[in-house]
Design goal:
Organism: Ideonella aquatica
Pfam family, one: adh_short_C2
Order of helices and strands: EHEHEHEHEHHEHHHE
Helix content: 40-55%
Protein name: SDR family oxidoreductase
Strand content: 5-15%
Number of helices: 9
Family: Belongs to the short-chain dehydrogenases/reductases (SDR) family.
C-alpha cells in the first residue's frame, strides 16, 4: 500500500535508538525526508548513516541536543524546512517510589513527557492546518491505560499529555484541515528503556534480571517483547494519507497484555 507520504518532511524526536528509531526507519521507507534528534551525537549519526544507506533517495538531517530544552527544540524545528509529520518522543523518567521524588523530579518528568510535546505541537500545528495536511504522533506508554506502580512519574506526566491531546485533536479547525493527533501506547518492547525498567524491578525484588525478563514476557499472550520495527510500521500507518479519519486516539500496542475490553 502506498501511504502517500513520499516527499513529506518529518521531525522524529529521540530517534537514535529504540522506538524513535523504528519510526524513523518506517517513515524513511515511505520516502519521507527526515530530521532526527537525540542527545547522543555518536548514536544519532550512526542511525542517520544507516537510514541514508538504506534509502539514498531521501534526505536525513541530524540535530544533536536535548529536545526537552528550549534550545534543543528551537534547533530541531529550525533544521526542518516544513514539518508535515511530528513524532514526539523522549526518554521516560526513572522508576522508583513516589516517596523518594521531590518537586524537581516531578517538574523534570512533566517537562520531558508532557510540556515538551505540547510546545512542539504548538510550534507546528497551525502551519499543518494552513497546508491542509499534518500528522502528530505522541509516543507515550501502555502505562497510561494500565499504570505500573514503579513508573509513577511517567504515569502522571504522560496521562496529562493524553488529556491535553484528547481536547486539542478534536478542534474542528484542525480535524477539518486534515491534521490528526494520536498517541501510540507501547507495552513491553525490546529497548534500552525496557531493560532499565526491568533492572529496577529486579533490584526491588532481588531476582536476577533474566528471571524478571522471562516473567514479563509471560505477561502478554504474544509471549515476547515487541520490536521497534513493528512499532514503527504502526507509526507510519497512523501518519499515512489513509489515516486522515483517525484522530484523538490512544492506540495500544502491547502483544495483548492489557486484559480489558476497552
Amino acid at each position: 500500500m502506498d501511504m502517500g507520504l513520499a516527499g513529506r518532511w518529518a521531525l522524529v524526536c529521540a530517534a537514535s535508538k529504540g522506538l524513535g528509531k523504528g519510526c524513523a526507519q518506517a517513515l524513511a521507507a515511505e520516502g519521507v525526508r527526515l530530521v532526527i534528534t537525540a542527545r547522543g551525537t555518536q548514536a544519532l549519526e550512526a542511525t542517520a548513516a544507516e537510514l541514508r544507506a538504506a534509502h539514498p533517495a531521501i534526505e536525513v538531517r541530524t540535530v544533536a541536543g536535548d529536545i526537552t530544552t528550549p534550545e534543543g527544540r528551537a534547533a530541531a524545528l529550525a533544521a526542518c524546512p516544513q514539518i508535515d509529520i511530528l513524532v514526539n518522543n523522549a526518554g521516560g523518567p526513572p522508576p522508583g517510589d513516589f516517596r523518594d521524588w521531590d518537586r524537581a523530579a516531578w517538574i523534570a518528568a512533566l517537562d520531558a513527557n508532557m510540556l515538551t510535546p505540547i510546545e512542539l505541537i504548538k510550534a507546528v500545528v497551525d502551519g499543518m492546518a494552513g497546508r491542509g495536511f499534518g500528522r502528530i504522533v505522541n509516543i507515550t506508554s501502555g502505562a497510561v491505560k494500565a499504570p505500573i506502580d514503579i513508573l509513577g512519574l511517567s504515569n502522571g506526566a504522560r496521562s496529562g499529555l493524553t488529556g491535553f491531546v484528547a481536547g486539542l485533536s478534536r478542534q474542528p479547525r484542525l480535524a477539518s484541515r486534515n491534521v490528526t493527533i494520536n498517541n501510540l501506547l507501547p507495552g513491553a518492547f525490546d529497548t534500552d528503556r525496557l531493560r532499565t525498567t526491568l533492572q529496577g524491578a529486579a533490584a526491588k525484588t532481588g531476582q536476577p534480571l533474566e528471571v524478571v525478563m522471562a516473567q514479563r514476557k509471560q505477561g502478554a499472550p504474544a509471549r515476547r517483547f515487541g520490536t521497534p520495527e513493528e512499532f514503527g510500521a504502526l507509526c507510519a500507518f497512523v501518519c499515512s494519507a489513509q489515516a486522515g479519519f483517525l484522530t484523538g486516539q490512544n492506540l495500544l500496542i502491547d502483544g495483548g497484555a492489557y486484559p480489558g475490553s476497552f
